[in-house]
Amino acid sequence: MNLTLKIWRQKDSNAKGQMVDYKVTDISEHMSFLEMMDVLNEQLVNSGDEPIAFDHDCREGICGTCSMYINGEAHGPDRGITTCQLHMRMFKDGDTITIEPFRASAFPVIKDLVVDRSAFDRIQHAGGYISINTSGNTQDANAIPISKIAADEAMDAAACIGCGACVATCKNSSAMLFVGAKVSQYALLPQGQVEAAERVKNMVAQMDLEGFGNCTNTGACEVECPKGISLDNIARMNRELLKANMS
What we know:
7 strands, alpha+beta
């Protein structure tokens, strides 16, 4: 395939960015999207130009760092995948592909397609953990009965990789699907009950402090989420917050 790529280039967070056109040729439909980007970067390096900065790590759909906004969709036109799992067979010869960083005031651009998602880390640090000391009193894993439904829902929530697609695709740049998933994975299990009220209040307060928008139940976040995190987690977070504020 021969493609035209319109890619956002921005030297740093203080510079003014712009879209720049590039041509790539002989792209195999079996390549992943990031392999195609590698081909382009090799082409740029060989010609003495600055390669395009983009995040990547595992390239297995696990780490969530490869986030790109492709043709107006977080992670591109496929569903249930991250950018590294997107393959070029989703495009046609002669296509023009627009590639941008995730857009949100809480995700400032660092360079080109790389954004700073440390806001998610700070939300996690505010309460996304269990701090009860169990040293010397550790119980067997099967000592506390947990229903299969609760265990399955907790695991589904814990599948969130924090890529930020929910924020990027939301018209309000809301992080409530991410926070809802991180609250839910503890709220559904007995180990998370001890700090439940403090956890949800602190995480929601930090989310607001970071400048994320509110949820208006559009549902775009769930559609674009590579792990299919359910909107049910937002409802659970709201319920947990209400309980915490009434206690």
